[in-house]
Amino acid sequence: MVHYSFLPNGQTVTSESYRRELQVVQEKLARIRYVTATRKPPILLHDNARPHVSRDTIQKLRQLNWEVLPHPAYSPDLAPSDYHMFSHMDRFIKEKQFHNQDMVENAVREFFESRTPEFFAKGIYDLVDRWEKCLDCNGDYFD
Fold it and tell me: Which of 51, 84, 123, 132 has the smallest set of CB atoms within 10 Å of its CB?
């Protein structure tokens, strides 16, 4: 896990906030020397939400020199967070009670810290098979 963040209550993701997050990820990748070690730009898979496909975001991604995988509309089958991470997180927080935002954020941090690099890698590696299934189904749901 390279980066995650929490939105303050009542805030939504905007094109501007999304671009700031992309810059933070770029800076963190530079600190761990990801790009120089792999000699390849990051590959980003994000959905078609407005902040992700805005002109300003596309310009930012070009500036960062990131490759963006196409994502069929309404296809949660391809989001590793949906098919891999959230199901495990759901089991992790099952029957816990949260009385405030700090408790939620601490539980999420605890979940991420309890996962191995192999856990996250599996979610990404599974994407290859899911991508092929999606193509075979012409972008329809399959799981």
Answer: 132
What's the pTM?
0.80
CB count in 10 Å sphere of residue 51 = 17
Name beta bridge partners: 67.
Answer: 43
* Per-residue tokens: 115: 């996962």
In 21-128, DSSP assigns E strands to: 43-44, 67-68
Nearest to 29 by CA among 14, 39, 19: 39
Confidence of residue 36 (pLDDT cuts 50, 70, 90): low
Residue matched to tokens 């309404």: 74
- Residues 35 and 78: their CA atoms lie apart, in Å, by 24
Asked whether the CA dihedral 41, 47, 48, 50 is positive or negative, the reply is negative
At residue 69 the predicted structure's pLDDT band, cuts being 50, 70 and 90, is confident
Cβ contacts of 72 within 8 Å, gap of 6 or more: 78, 134, 139
